[in-house]
Write a structure and sequence with these properties.
Number of helices: 3
Structural class: mainly alpha
Strand order of the largest sheet: 1-2
Shape: elongated
Distance between the termini: 54 Å
CATH topology of the largest domain: Arc Repressor Mutant
Length: about 90
């Protein structure tokens, strides 16, 4: 598939960083920019899908009580780290 041309305006400092990376990996500037955009778009698509799933779960009544999430987070890095709480129907919460 042929590539399309696109023009963007970048801050000079970002351009310098892109050029330094391109030089370090012996690739053209366009390669670095294309790979960075691929990663960004993939991450944003994942994020949007995760948010939509979370909203759909909440709309369906699949919830995790706040205090369970807080207790789980507070246990991180301790000897008694708790397992990740699981969503369950609202009627089973608590």
């Amino acid at each position: 598939m042929p590539k399309t041309h696109m023009s963007v305006r970048l801050e000079p400092e970002l351009t310098k960083r892109i050029d330094a990376l391109a030089k370090a990996i012996e690739r053209p500037r366009a390669y670095v920019i294309e790979k960075a955009l691929e990663d960004y778009v993939a991450h944003q698509a994942w994020h949007v899908a995760a948010v939509k799933k979370g909203i759909a779960d909440a709309d369906a009544g699949l919830l995790i009580p706040h205090d369970e999430v807080a207790a789980w987070v507070e246990s991180w890095g301790t000897k008694h780290e708790k397992p990740r709480p699981r969503a369950r129907p609202r009627t089973q919460a608590r």
